Structures are given as C-alpha cells and as structure tokens.
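quick one, two chains, predict together pls
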Amino acid sequence: MTRGRAPTASLVVKVGGSAGVDLDAVCRDVASRWREGERLVLVHGGSDRTNQVAELMGTPPRFVTSPSGHTSRYTDSDAMEVFLMVYCGALNKRIVERLQRLGLPAVGLSGLDGRVLEGTHKRSVRSVENGKVRVLHGDHTGTVERVNAELLELLLEAGYLPVLSPPAASYEGSAINVDGDRAAAAVAAALGAERLVILSNVPGLLADVDDETSLIPSLTLAGIDAAMASAGGRMKKKLLGAAEALRGGVEQVVLGDAREPAPVSAALAGRGTVIAVSSREE
Amino acid sequence: MTRGRAPTASLVVKVGGSAGVDLDAVCRDVASRWREGERLVLVHGGSDRTNQVAELMGTPPRFVTSPSGHTSRYTDSDAMEVFLMVYCGALNKRIVERLQRLGLPAVGLSGLDGRVLEGTHKRSVRSVENGKVRVLHGDHTGTVERVNAELLELLLEAGYLPVLSPPAASYEGSAINVDGDRAAAAVAAALGAERLVILSNVPGLLADVDDETSLIPSLTLAGIDAAMASAGGRMKKKLLGAAEALRGGVEQVVLGDAREPAPVSAALAGRGTVIAVSSREE
C-alpha cells in the first residue's frame, strides 16, 4: 500500500455482466464475507444487457474498430441513455436489492454521483470502415483518471457497502462511458485496498481462449505485457486494469470465475489467475 | 419542527416527471439556492417516461382501478425492471449530471440504497374489470412508512446534495413502487425540514382542473380533506402528501409550477398553492 493510514476497504470486487455470471452467488459470497468483518467495494459491469436493451429500444449498439485494431462501443447520446438505464437502473439497483435482502447496508452509486470517477471526455473516435478511417463525433467516452475516494470512504466508515457502476463524470460533469475493470482498478488503488478480484465468465487468463483447462495460474506485473499481446479484447482490459492496480499499490489482483458457487472466496483462495508485482519465489 | 436539533436540510423539493416539466430550470434554480447556502434534498418522479419506455420494451404499463375508484400502476416484475431503469437510471442520473455540470456535489439515490425509504410490500391489488373485482398477485408496491434519514444526513453533513427517487425497499429488502409525492413528504418530515415544495406541470391546486386561472392560492390542513374530494388522481396524492408533511412537523407545503423559469424560488415566494397547518390570519 502507498497510503499511510489503514484502508477503509481491504478489497475491491469487480463483477462483469456477461452471460453465465451468477450475481446471486456473488452477492451471497460478498454478504458472508461482509458479516465476517471484511470491508469492500463492489463494482459491476453490464455490457451484454445494455446491448439487449438497446436492441429492444430500437437503438442497436454500435461498435467501432480503431486504426490500431482496438474495438470499443460508440456511445452517442441515445447509447448513453440506454447505458444509464441498464448500468445505473436495472443492474445497480438489482444488485443493491439482492444485498439488502441478505441484510447488507448496500448503497448504489455511479461514477457521476459525487464525481466518484472522473476523466477526460473523449468526444470523437476514429473508426475503420471498409478500409477507410472515419472520425465519428458526439462520443461520450473516456478513461478514469481520478477517483474521488472521499464519498466511498464516508460511506464505508459509516458502515455502508458501496456498489459502484460506470459511467464516470467528465471534468465538465457529463456522463462518460468508461471501462469497468479499469475503473475498479483505479478505485482499489485510491482506497489503498490490498486486493482486487475481477470476476467474469471464464476461469481467468487462458493460454488458449477456446480451452478452459489452459488457465494460467499466476502472472507477474512484468509478464502482463506479453500476456496482453495474445489476449482478447475484454481480457486485455482486465490485464490493463491489473497492471494499473498493481502500479497503484494494490498487492494482488485475481482474475476469477464468476460462475463458481462462492466466486469471491474462490478467487481469494487462488482459483483463477493470481497477479502480483513479483512471484512468491522471487 | 418536531426535532430538537437543527435540520440538516431546511427544504425538500419534489419534481414530477410529466410533460412540460423543465428539469433544466429546476436544476438551475436548485443550484443557485444551494450556492447561497440553502441545504435541500431533491426528490423526483418519472411516471410518464416509464410508460413510454415500457411501451418501447414491449411490456406496456398496466393500470388498475380499485373497488374504491383509486387508480394505480400494477407493478409486476417486468414493470419494476422498467421502473428501475427509468427512475434510477435515466432520470436520476441525468438530474445528477445536470447538477454536476452546474458544479453541485449531487449524489443520486433510490429508496433501496441504505433503505432510505422503507414500507410494507403489498403483493396483491384488487382490480375492477368489466364490473367484476379480480385480485392480481405479484404486485410490487407499497407506501413509505419509515425514512432512514441517517444516510441523507450523512451526505448533507458532508456537503453532498442527495437526489432521491422511488422505489422504496420493503422490510424484506425488495424494491417496491411508492408514490413520489408522499415519499418526499415523509423525507421532509424525517429531516425536520421547514418547507416542502411539490412541483408539477400545473400552477398548483385548481378549483377547475380545466382552467389554469382557477388556482386556489392557499389552503389549511383542515381544508385538505374537502379539496381532495374534488381533486384528480395525481393531485389527490399531492394533497395527501401535503397533509402527511404538515402532520409530521413541516411548516409549509407549496404546490408549485415546474414550468416557471425559477420554479423552486417562485413556489417559495408564494406562487402556487401554499398549504400550512393554519392560515396566517388565524
């Protein structure tokens, strides 16, 4: 840890919104750990459900591929409306509801609330279409550059469990779409948390993405760059988040499987890909 | 006020979600009052937009009329999903965004978060259909019976502006649809606020609902029952909320016009229907 005082949360858990993710199991596990005294922040995603609702609403999602080959969601005003509805409405409040039903004092927040997550508003994106590069304007995206931890700490110190969701706030106060894994990493670093668990619908980092038995059990910060070269889009963001968390003082990041019966505890017991600045043998 | 110590907010503002309501004007007015030192809680509705999104999502809203002639939304699980998306996602976060853009430290909450709003879960509703009374099960509604003011006070004392939205939490922790006007009244009473402003797309209580010049400028608590007899469904809830706020120690309730350029200040200056326990002359 880089901070002088005790952290208000020792753990940040990020859970994705992909098919197969068992939010009930995540919440039950979080609840049992909370009752044992562990203090944590839960961060969640919601990309797949956002795509479904966007289709239903008649504004299908649009993805763009940058000249460097990076794929991202083009978040115009309509897309942000659906994003807010799904992430901050349906998903955030259903997670809060699950935790409240388990007796936990959950409080749901977006990055806009109290500007917990802040970053620069990226208003345009370069898109490769039919071999030509186009510039699309009206984008509402960015990257978390600052975490205003005061609000999270206020809630944690008063006994509440923060459940945090993108979007972030731009420095002008507008909603911007940010990556949830990297946001969770920034929160873990800002709170001085010891561990970050990133759960999704795979066992962790796989040597072969089509083979779930090819799990890479551990990785060092130095090995992340090489791993990123062969990882898919979503896993790249998780590895990038892991590197950012470790550089920010987090001791250990685990990429775990949200389909496990007790997914947070399984990840913390080492099931998944455990990433640290250096290996234990060193 | 019924409380011994100074209130953390002197004012609660409720703004409805009907056509014509100018949320930009409400937020600008709230911002200018906040900058002058006034501490308040903003509560909002969203019924009309919820109906629109429910239609788009293929789950049109269903309203039931009780044997006593009272009309209400039947909130089954699908309807609650849309309710959460619109109230807690699109509307709550867009209001927070507006306030953040104006430099205010807004924090959006639903009644589920920290169980700010709690009540009994009403699981069935009697509905008159073709002259016959049917009982519909699977309803998720209720009335706010408790306000857990601690979270609102924690935020206000730390300098944040709470922006609060239905649903409430049942005592079991489930989301229940509650009336926003009555929720705002309960919040005002619980915080020991001096005044409650309820804004909608009419000038206030009208003697003739079809004639906007027929505004009733003032009313006493004793006169509310008679006024309710002739009021429409939405206005009935506002009057019920007003009575509950006054009985809970709030000094003055104003039913104001959200279409005004500075709607909160106009209402507080007496434009609208001013309701108090007794008239000034008494």
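Chain A has one domain: 11-276.
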